[in-house]
Amino acid sequence: MNHPELDIERITRQLADAKALLIDQSFESKESRATVMLDQQSVGRLSRMDALQGQAMAQAEEDRRQLAIRRIDAALARLDRGTFGECIECGEWIAVKRLEWDPTVLKCIDCAE
Ligand SMILES: [Zn+2]
Question: Per-10-residue mean pLDDT for the chain, 113 residues long?
Fold first, then answer.
């Protein structure tokens, strides 16, 4: 059973929307993560370093997005199985406020600490 005090439909929609947004952002940032290929003659050493740094930052952001997508997928799977809102540690219901703050949390506040 999913958490009885939650609007499961709303949470599902919220998670799906968040995932769609992350996928969009990932797609849009594809270019800035592409291999830095600069013409050595026209671009100075400094701007090449800038480009590499920008690429590294874009990649770090992408890693964060992919992690968030995996967490959302896991939450959607729990909704599917009917175990959403259950603490994976103690099996008690996670507080509604906590789930509304972050629907991808896996543990109740006591077990998370
Ligand atoms: Zn717990």
Answer: 95 97 94 69 73 91 97 97 97 96 96 93
Question: Does residue 95 form part of some domain?
Answer: no
Q: 21 vs 26, 51, 72, 84, 111, CA distance in Å?
A: 9, 26, 12, 22, 30
With respect to residue 28, please indicate whether it lies within any of the assigned structural domains.
yes
Residue 104 within any structural domain of the chain: no
Distance between Cα 99 and ligand 1 center (Å): 13
Domain extent, residue 65, equals 8-83
Q: Is pTM, for the whole model, over 0.90? A: no
In a domain, 51, yes or no: yes
Distance in angstroms between the alpha carbons of the first and the last residue of the chain: 25
Total domains in the fold of the chain: 1
CA 33–ligand 1 middle distance (angstroms): 39
CA of 107 to the centre of ligand 1 (A): 5
Distance 79 CA to ligand 1 centre (A): 18
